[in-house]
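Archive entry: two folds, one per protein. Generate the first.
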Amino acid sequence: MLGPHLLKRRRGLLRFLCIPGQSEILKIRKLYDAFRAEFPLCFGYWKKYADHEGRLDGVNKVFEVYERAVLAVTYSVDIWCNYCQFAISTYNDPDVIRRLWFQYFVG
């Protein structure tokens, strides 16, 4: 398990890699995956990762990140709000949002 000093170093590296215009997506994914493996409940980093994917690789990857996020941090209201807000802004179709809602909350 990472100690506080390694957590601080990883956060610094994430900040460096997340500079707008940075395009080494495979390295960024690897770093985020390593960080989230150690700290899966840091919901803010799920959001940052989704935003980064959206800038560099498109909508489908963002949905994949949010799908993984809601499985890892199921009870995070922030993650759910971000996921639903993203879905609403991406698809102007209430049926898509309804399916998302029922998939996780009802079914």
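Generate the second and append.
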Amino acid sequence: MKKIENEDGRLITFSKRTSGIYRKVSELVTLTVSAIARLVFSQSGKPFSFGNPSIEAVANRFLGLNCQVRIMNSISSIMSCFVNWMRKWKGRRR
């Protein structure tokens, strides 16, 4: 497997694969009645998420937290770190 060099091709592949993963996760939830969270960031930093019953509930369970404010702060911190990383990565490409 290697990186898709053509940017348009990469965006199309991301869109198709993200849709496919969403369908598979939805099927898994339906078949197994599982608590599942999926979080994907596009190349531009846009988050795509899915959670059953919700992404916050699954993250709280995973982290052992019961305070929604703390998990939202954690998600915000993760997103900030990712955005900073993307900025650095884009700067290296130029």
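Annotation attached to the second fold: The chain has a mean pLDDT of 81. The chain has one domain: 7-93.
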